[in-house]
Amino acid sequence: MNNEEKIAEFFRKYRDKVQNPIIKGFLANEDNLSLLKKYILNPTDANKNKVDKAFKQHYNRVLKIKYVSNLIYFFTMDYNIKRRKENDTVLLILDKSSEYDARTPLKDLIEDKNEEKHTLNRNLLDDIESERLIKALQTLTEKQLLILDLIYHKQLTLKEISEILKTTPQNISNLHRKSLKKLNQILSEEVKSKYDKE
């Protein structure tokens, strides 16, 4: 049996295990695949230990990325819950109906002279204590920051934001998703580089 047949036989034998997403990700790296092939062709303890060590590093990276991803997700959830609680306990007087018209709230009677001019309110950044998250947020575009501010700080719906920015709710949703993905990527890379140095 030649080398290629040995490798093919190994992958046939462990076909189900190789389909596992973590193992698939591990083998997507050429260096890791090369280490495994060396072990298949020459199954010594030294080669086995090299594969084990590389897999442990890969697995730890996956766990760290998952951890950061969960951190971002739960941070946004907690932030949203906190803001909703504050808004429920401290209602604006302007939300009450007008004494002249019971159906119209007072805020609708106030003329907004700057209706077209919506700028970023930096309260979102002011309320965040994590310097790493603030730095990551500062890498976003002004529009992305504005959308995050309107969603998480002002608690506007996608439809309301789309009316303000004169675009579609789908576009706002895409920008929101891209912003969170970029934050996740930046924070993941930061954690990865920190642990790679150690």
UniProtKB/TrEMBL annotation:
PANTHER family: SIGMA FACTOR F FLAGELLAR. Keywords: DNA-binding, Sigma factor, Transcription, Transcription regulation. NCBIfam families: sigma70-ECF. Gene3D superfamilies: 1.20.140.160. This is Sigma-70 family RNA polymerase sigma factor. It comes from Oceanobacillus luteolus. Transmembrane segments: none annotated. InterPro entries: RNA_pol_sigma-70_dom (IPR014284), RNA_pol_sigma70_r4 (IPR007630), RNA_pol_sigma_r3/r4-like (IPR013324). Residues 136-183 form the RNA polymerase sigma-70 region domain. The lineage of its organism: Bacteria, Bacillati, Bacillota, Bacilli, Bacillales.
